[in-house]
Amino acid sequence: MEKVKASKQLSSQRKNLPRLSILAQEISELAFNEKAIFSPILKRWHPLAAGVAVATLHSCYWNELRKFISSISELTPDAIEVLRAADKLEKDIVQIAVEDAVDSDDGGKSIIQEMPPYEAEAVIANLVKSWIKTRVDRLREWVDRNLQQEVCNTWKLAEKLIYVF
């Protein structure tokens, strides 16, 4: 996070992206680099070196993402961008962990179980439901107000007609 905050030289593609989205992209790059460069060496000492590394990265990002999720209350383009980036990161991390654990006894289930799902799609779905509910409630208020105004106008028209006849 500190690197992203301090970075003044963001590429034009990343300039308008939220920080957590950029962080997710950078963690994904870091995870793939770790798998390619360090894990083959570290496998001498631990059979699931890449899995342990990505589980740690997953946990670190989850700490930041959890704070973000608790702070959002409505559907915004930034929220969607962060949640999509988190979902992609999670898929990348799980892929690396599964590939690393293919030869293990449990097929990597122990590493995967240590990574609580981000559930980005569920968060987006809940935000969409909340947005729709708010819009439906607002529409209901407008319809009720217009109906009451129409009833009032109808009574006024009826009184005028009675007076005329």
Distance between the termini: 79 Å
Count of beta strands: 0
β-sheet strand percentage: under 5%
**Structure class:** mainly alpha
Topology pattern, helix = H, strand = E: HHHHHH
Shape: rod-shaped
Average pLDDT rating = 82
Radius of gyration: 27 Å
Sheet with most strands: none
Query: What percent of residues adopt helix (DSSP H or I)?
Result: over 70%
Q: How many discrete structural domains?
A: 2
Spans of 5+ residues with little confidence (pLDDT < 50)?
none
Q: Count of DSSP helices?
A: 6
Describe this structure in words.
- The protein has 165 residues and is mainly α.
- The protein folds into 2 domains: 2-118; 120-165.
- 76% of the residues lie in helices and 0% in strands.
- It has 6 helices and no strands.
- Helix 2 (19-42) runs parallel beside helix 4 (77-100), helix 3 (49-71) packs antiparallel against helix 4 (77-100) and helix 4 runs antiparallel to helix 6.
- The longest helix has 45 residues, at 120-164.
Please name the defining characteristics of this protein.
165 residues; rod-shaped; mainly alpha
Tell me the layout of helices and strands.
Blueprint: H1 2-6, H2 19-42, H3 49-71, H4 77-100, H5 109-113, H6 120-164
Helix pairs in contact: 2-3, 2-4, 3-4, 4-6
Compact summary:
It contains 6 helices and no strands. The protein has 165 residues and is an all-alpha fold.
